[in-house]
C-alpha cells in the first residue's frame, strides 16, 4: 500500500481538519452537537477515507478507488454548507479555511480524473 501520508491531498486535508478543530473550539457550547460536530465530522472524513483510496490493490481491483474521491468531495460540500450557516450566524473564520477547501477540491478532482482514466469509468457509472 502506498503511504497515504505522502499524498499532498492528505497533507492538505489533515491541515484543514486541524484548522477546523481550532476554529470550532471557540464556538458556543450549545452548538457542540450541532454545527460544531457537523463541521468537524465533514472535515475529518475527507482525510480519513484517503488511506483506502491510496491502496494500490484497491486501485487495481475495485471501483471504490473511483467512488471514494467523490465521497470526499461530497464531505467538503457538506463542510462548506455547515460553514455557510456558521458564517451567517456571525462566525467570521470562513476565509481561514476557504482557500484550503478550494485547493483540496481541485486535488480531488485531479484524483478523480486520474482514477477514472485508469479504471476507464465515467462518473455516472
SSE blueprint and pairings:
Layout: H1 8-24, H2 35-54, H3 56-61, H4 64-88, H5 94-119
Helix pairs in contact: 1-2, 1-5, 2-4, 4-5
How would you describe the overall organization of this protein?
This protein is mainly alpha-helical. It has one domain: 23S rRNA-intervening sequence (de novo design (two linked rop proteins), Up-down Bundle). Helices cover 75% and strands 0% of the residues. It contains 5 helices and no strands. The longest helix has 26 residues, at 94-119. The model has no long low-confidence stretch (mean pLDDT 77).
Jot down its keywords.
mainly alpha, 125 residues, 5 helices, single chain, de novo design (two linked rop proteins), 75% helix
Short description:
The chain is mostly helical and 125 residues long.
The global form is elongated
The CATH top-level class label: Mainly Alpha
Helix content: over 70%
> Which CATH-level-2 architecture?
Up-down Bundle
Task: Tell me the CATH topology.
Answer: de novo design (two linked rop proteins)
Strand count, sense and barrel status of the largest sheet are:
none
Strand content: under 5%
- Uncertain parts: none
